[in-house]
Amino acid sequence: MGKVKEKNILVGIAFNAYDPITSQKTERPSEESVEQTAKEALTAVTELGYTAFILPLHKSFMAFLNRVKDLNADVIINLCEAFAGYPQLESNVAAAFELLGVAFTGNDSRTLALCLNKFKTKAILKQSGLPTAPAKILDSPDAKLDIPFPVIVKPNTEDASLGVHPDSVVRDQENLQKQVQRIIDIHEQPALVEAYIDGREFNVGVLDDGKPEALPVSEIDFSKMPEGQEHILCYEAKWLTDDILYTSTPPVCPAQIDDALKAKLQETAVKAFLTTSCRDYARVDFRMDKKGKIYVLEVNPNPDISLNAGYARALAAAGIEYKVFWQKMIEKALARKAKK
Ligand SMILES: Nc1ncnc2c1ncn2[C@@H]1O[C@H](COP(=O)(O)OP(=O)(O)O)[C@@H](O)[C@H]1O
Ligand SMILES: [Mg+2]
Q1: 288 CB less than 6 Å from ligand 1?
Q2: Region 250-266: what's the mean pLDDT?
Q3: Cβ(116) to ligand 1 under 6 A?
Q4: Of 318, 136, 300, 141, whose CA–CA distance to 233 is shortest?
Q5: Ligand 2 center–CA 65 separation, angstroms
Q6: For a Cys staple, 55 with which of 14, 15, 75, 197, CB 3.0–4.6 Å?
């Protein structure tokens, strides 16, 4: 496909802009990274020959809708991960595009809403025969837990490791209660308490360009972590680039694993993608215990898609150029609309 055709297509790039007033509940680095992704997507699609503009979503949804209406783009690259600092409202933005009949890239509102609820997603994966760690929702620090320690305590409906910190892994009742109370107080939601899977961590991107296929497996290398630190990708390790937890958890892609494990992870990632009705792209997070059993932690239907994050790294490892990825996604979104 040449540039002549793309030139006639107008692309809008929607993202949630960090706003210190409305985003008090979340943390700055993860929120700001979406704007960076929007700029990278803008560069990529401009290079492809499309005419593109960014569509920042601030605290007024009405102002955003007016911007969308004024631009009247043929297709929107939807990078919105939250509204007014709430990831729980991420799916509503996609739902608005659906109601407006706008073509947009990435997952639909139903899949975004489902996967943001980790416990519900796990129930569906489990029912479909996919392995997930034993888990329970605790809505009070005094609620009874029937999962043996160690466990990890995380918010049930957040993403980007929000609410996951070095002390989220607990080994006794006192710390369990403390962490559950912290989730309730700070994140205003029940805690998801999960068996702590001690072992390696993998991520598998899935790309659906006609049919879902797994990208090369990525692994978090915990070998350089300071002594005594839990081997988890907590908020500090994911976002605070100057933190020792960030610098000591480098991703390795492709992961150094044997063919059998690679096949198992990739096959499970595609099944998880299909089970949660994903489309276009998603990333599936895994842990593997010391016996070699793998567990799906979660499905990310709106993963960090910036150039320095895992999904783009996996695309590069698969030999797929970042801009070619966006071209495929734009064409898929336009084809979905044409079909309607
Ligand atoms: N059951 C678990 N066992 C071991 N580590 C876990 C478990 N659940 C979460 N983690 C750690 O916490 C990180 C964030 O958890 P995850 O469920 O992927 O939520 P999110 O990325 O949406 O914040 C994971 O990347 C992993 O390092
Ligand atoms: Mg994750």
Answers
A1: no
A2: 97
A3: no
A4: 300
A5: 30
A6: 14
Give residue 32's pLDDT: 76
What's the pLDDT at 23?
A: 44
Strands (E), the chain: 10-16, 51-57, 75-78, 135-138, 151-155, 169-170, 191-195, 199-208, 212-214, 218-220, 251-252, 281-289, 294-300
- Confidence class for position 325, pLDDT limits 50, 70, 90: very high
Residue pLDDT, tens place only, 164-180: 999 999 999 999 999 99
pLDDT of residue 24 exceeding 70: no
- Taking the CA of 154 as reference, the closest ligand is 1
Residues 121 and 266 in one domain: yes
Neighbours of ion ligand 2 (CB under 5 A): 285
The answer to whether 118 touches 166, Cβ cutoff 8 Å, is no
Q: Are 189 and 332 in a shared domain? A: no
232 lines ligand 1 (CB under 6 A): yes
Asked whether residue 288 falls in the same domain as residue 204, the answer is yes
CATH of the domain at 309: 3.30.470.20
Question: 208 and 169 in one domain?
Answer: no
User: What is the tens place of the pLDDT at every residue in 135-166?
Assistant: 999 999 999 999 999 999 999 998 888 899 99
User: Does residue 306 share a domain with residue 263?
Assistant: yes
Give the Cα separation of 245 and 232 in Å (integer): 9
Which residue among 297, 298, 300, 311 has the greatest number of ligand 1 atoms within 8 angstroms of its CB, and so is best to mutate? Answer: 297
Helix H, strand E, coil C: the string for 3-23 is HHHHCCCEEEEEEECCCCCCC
Together in a domain, 261 and 279: yes
Mean pLDDT over each residue of the chain, to the nearest integer: 94
Q: What is the CATH number of the domain that holds 177?
A: 3.30.1490
259 lies in which domain range? 115-133+197-317
The finding on whether 287 has its CB within 6 A of some atom of ligand 1 is: yes
Of ligand 1's listed atoms, the one at least distance from the Cα of 285 is: 18
Domain count, the chain: 3
Query: What's the pLDDT band for 61 if we cut at 50, 70, 90?
Result: very high
In terms of domains, do 100 and 175 share one? Answer: no
CA of 13 to the centre of ligand 1 (A): 29
Question: Looking at the structure, do residues 289 and 156 belong to the same domain, yes or no?
Answer: no
Q: Which amino acid is at 303?
A: P
Specify the pLDDT at position 33: 85
Is residue 1 predicted with pLDDT exceeding 80? no
